[in-house]
Amino acid sequence: MAPTIPLAWQPILAEETAKPYYARLQAFVDAERAAHTVFPPEPDVFNALLLTPFERVSVLLLGQDPYHDDGQAHGLCFSVRPGISTPPSLVNIYKELRDDVGFRIPNNGYLVKWAEQGILMLNAVLTVRAHQPNSHKNKGWETFTDAVIRAVNAKDEPVVFVLWGGYAQKKLKLIDTERHTVIQSAHPSPLSARNGFFGSRPFSQINAALSAAGRAPIDWQIADL
């Protein structure tokens, strides 16, 4: 049984979910769930869309695929559930936030507050087999999330697209860079953060672009839990 697209996104994505590949993708995920542990849990698969309705999207932050260890993934890129250790990429995001906007590093990695302010925290692939990164790539999720990116690109008002790392930057071709702001750098993972993520100051750039477009800036601070 496929999880339901959140109501606000259904008219936007109805054409996409009617395509044959989407039914095949859902059948694949259902079979994976029957035979293996799959993250995130089914009710959380579309949390990025649920927490950030289409009309509220002002920033799109793109990740790759969900965290694959127990209890981490809950449908938002880079975010983990309360009580779960902050993963290395998010540790580096927090360090850059501290240096960029004076962020106080919290004791958790639960980023729902960002999604509720209009940041669509989208992974390119929305499910993963437990402990096997990228195990659900090239099964159809990328086609679906490309359609989400295209829909956001087609919004009347300008959006800030944040593309960290080579994988995300391949999506640049889906974005009208004349109308929207694109912020790119190295990925915040420990393997690449020192190659251009640290010092890139993306968070102040996002807020400057939002302010220039007459939108409210993001309050980045995450509270301790």
From TrEMBL:
One of its GO terms (molecular function) is uracil DNA N-glycosylase activity. It comes from the Bacteria. Keywords: Cytoplasm, DNA damage, DNA repair, Hydrolase. GO terms for biological process: base-excision repair, AP site formation via deaminated base removal. The keyword NADP does not apply. Residues 50-210 form the Uracil-DNA glycosylase-like domain. GO terms for cellular component: cytoplasm. It catalyses: Hydrolyzes single-stranded DNA or mismatched double-stranded DNA and polynucleotides, releasing free uracil. Its EC number is 3.2.2.27. The active site is at D65 (proton acceptor). InterPro entries: UDG_fam1 (IPR002043), Uracil-DNA_glycosylase-like (IPR005122), Uracil-DNA_glycosylase-like_sf (IPR036895). It is found in: Cytoplasm. Excises uracil residues from the DNA which can arise as a result of misincorporation of dUMP residues by DNA polymerase or due to deamination of cytosine. Belongs to the uracil-DNA glycosylase (UDG) superfamily. UNG family. NCBIfam families: PRK05254.1-1, PRK05254.1-2, PRK05254.1-4, PRK05254.1-5, ung. This is Uracil-DNA glycosylase. The gene is ung.
